[in-house]
């Protein structure tokens, strides 16, 4: 959860994962995979940075310049708009206090729900770090890969963190061929747009894309939409005008997963 993911200049600590013990390798392997999974989200942050100057890693006071307590907080930061991250950099720490911004926040690793505008204590371990996700966030991800050479966004997993407190939400995903210089300026990219409308126990998701093209752009996508914090078995799920049977509601995790093929037409997904 930072712009450059590699260690440097640490005395007596090898930057290469292979030179560490097995426990460390197992922990780091999971986060290296997550870093690859998040490429669509992180690439979109880079696109936004290029267009607006908004940094990928953002201080908390970006949310409220009037809150002077946030001005002095150097322990937590926003990674894009969706994630609230609190690194643990001292040995032996069992828990950390995290000041939550307004809204609703979910623990990325456990799914625990927290109301905002308060400070919460979150247990820590070597295996994870405190990472929270803002309700209403869209997070596009890909499957596990070994290298960016294997990058394939034709199979996309889109996570949406639903909550009744967030009636409407928007998100986007930027893509180009990963090689063309100034692809954005030349219009050789695509921009996927996502919208959510949730109320009265129902959720409507809308998918659309711009009309730009680039070499190698997928003509369709195998979509896996994961809706977090969905508390009940849906009566029905509509993808466009057809009722979907390719769904799974995990009662324990409170997640609803819907799979479908998206031909990049304007499309709606309705959960009843």
Structure description:
The chain has about 270 residues and is mainly beta. Helices cover about 15% and strands about 35% of the residues. The chain has helices spanning about 20-35, 40-50, 70, 185; strands at about 55-60, 75-80, 85, 95-100, 105, 115, 120-125, 130-135, 140, 155-160, 170-175, 190-200, 200-210, 220-230, 235-240, 240-245, 245-250, 255-260, 265-270. The longest helix is centred in the first third of the chain and has 16 residues, at about 20-35. It is globular.
Features:
mainly beta; single chain; globular; six-stranded antiparallel sheet; 272 residues; 14% helix
Order of SSEs: HHEHEEEEEEEEEEHEEEEEEEE
Strand portion, in percent?
35-45%
Percentage of residues in helical conformation: 10-25%
For the secondary structure, the number of strands is 19
SSE blueprint:
Layout: H1 22-37, H2 39-52, E1 57-58, H3 68-71, E2 77-79, E3 83-85, E4 95-99, E5 104-107, E6 113-115, E7 119-123, E8 131-134, E9 138-141, E10 155-161, E11 168-175, H4 183-186, E12 190-199, E13 202-209, E14 221-228, E15 237-239, E16 242-243, E17 247-250, E18 255-262, E19 267-271
Parallel strand pairs: 10-14
Antiparallel strand pairs: 1-2, 2-3, 3-8, 4-7, 5-6, 5-8, 9-10, 11-12, 12-13, 13-19, 14-18, 15-16, 15-19, 17-18
């Amino acid at each position: 959860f930072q712009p450059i993911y590699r260690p440097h200049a640490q005395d007596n600590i090898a930057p290469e994962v292979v030179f560490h013990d097995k426990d460390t390798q197992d922990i780091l392997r999971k986060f290296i995979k997550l870093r690859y999974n998040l490429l669509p989200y992180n690439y979109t942050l880079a696109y936004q940075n290029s267009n607006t100057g908004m940094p990928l890693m953002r201080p908390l006071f970006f949310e409220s310049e009037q809150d002077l307590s946030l001005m002095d907080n150097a322990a937590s930061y926003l990674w894009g708009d969706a994630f609230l991250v609190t690194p643990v950099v001292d040995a032996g720490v069992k828990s950390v206090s995290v000041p939550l911004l307004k809204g609703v926040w979910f623990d990325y690793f456990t799914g625990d729900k927290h109301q905002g505008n308060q400070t919460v204590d979150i247990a820590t371990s070597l295996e994870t770090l405190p990472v929270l996700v803002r309700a209403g966030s869209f997070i596009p991800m890909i499957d596990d890969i070994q290298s960016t050479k294997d990058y394939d966004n034709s199979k996309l997993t889109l996570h949406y963190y639903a909550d009744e407190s967030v009636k409407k939400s928007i998100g986007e995903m930027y893509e180009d061929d990963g090689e063309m210089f100034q692809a954005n300026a030349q219009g050789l990219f695509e921009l996927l747009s996502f919208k959510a409308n949730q109320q009265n126990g129902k959720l409507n998701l809308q998918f659309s894309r711009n009309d730009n093209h680039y070499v190698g752009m997928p003509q369709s996508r195998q979509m896996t939409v994961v809706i977090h914090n969905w508390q009940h078995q849906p009566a029905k799920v509509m993808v466009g005008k057809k009722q979907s049977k390719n769904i799974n509601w995990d009662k324990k995790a409170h997640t609803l997963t819907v799979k479908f093929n998206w031909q990049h037409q304007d499309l709606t997904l309705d959960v009843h």
